């Protein structure tokens, strides 16, 4: 009887101990076997939502669309914050598995550049000549045609000569690419922080985030008279860096529904007016991490490939092509109903024909890295934190990681 009582007491104390332990983001990662489906669903849902928002741009024109979208400013700001924060969370898992900047930068290039290069080339070589009002000899000789290929390296150009001139948003081919330079800044800053070992010491990194937060709040106060319909670009980068921070501190951050709902309320209240965005980037990043770590049943749409990047790349140009067919396709809902499935179909083709084959070059990249490190070992990362969990990260671009 005494033995039974002791066993019962030990079990009771163990249960009580577990009940007082906060269930963290790291715990949820383990529970989902480090492969949560939430990030996959989030990426494709956010890409679809961006296409829906762009429906106003391509059917009403940019100025009129900004007036309407500005009334739903919180939605627009929140979508971008979620995109960049989830990218930061996932890219950090990838970074901490890398042995040096060779593999980290190489993986980012493999994930982003091949699909972007194909989309840029198709837009310039096929879409442009079909929809241009300029004679083809002048089209191919125009400096805008040559400059358009700089999109591949992040120098964004939105126009091709004479293309979509009769659309409500005339001349714009790929408006969504405006985020690409800021994504590249995110990777460059993270690479610098890795080279300086700051992101391998989460206490140092937390101090860096606090200083950045103070600086951004002061910037917002100084520029309080400037209102945008979306987050300022530097805040997009900050949301990415917050995603990095949440990953580094994942074992201390609670995975809690009530906390997530409270964070959503804070974002709705703070981002709706466009003032003090820097204060509400943290709850927005938490919402991204919480939703991404949820693990609903994985359906075909996310288990067969990552189509979010392709939807991001091709969504706007598909919408402009649809709008070019005349007034019958220039109603917002008609354009979205046609463009969304077409963009998804093109994204499926992009994944299976381009993106997944580029990702398979990762083994060759790692062999090249190993060969370099065997000769110059000092360029490898000097880590101050444990190796990460094997969180699967296969995203890129605006939905990227």
TrEMBL record:
Regions that span the bilayer: 41-62, 74-96, 108-131, 175-196, 228-248, 278-295, 307-326, 332-354
GO MF annotation list: acyltransferase activity, transferring groups other than amino-acyl groups
Pfam (any one): Acyl_transf_3
EC annotation from Swiss-Prot or TrEMBL: 2.3.-.-
Domain Acyltransferase: 38-349
Keywords: Acyltransferase, Membrane, Transferase, Transmembrane, Transmembrane helix
InterPro entries cross-referenced by the UniProt entry: Acyl_transf_3_dom (IPR002656), Acyltransferase_3 (IPR050879)
Enzyme class: transferase
PANTHER family: ACETYLTRANSFERASE (PTHR23028)
The protein, known as: Acyltransferase family protein
Gene source species: Bradyrhizobium sp. LLZ17
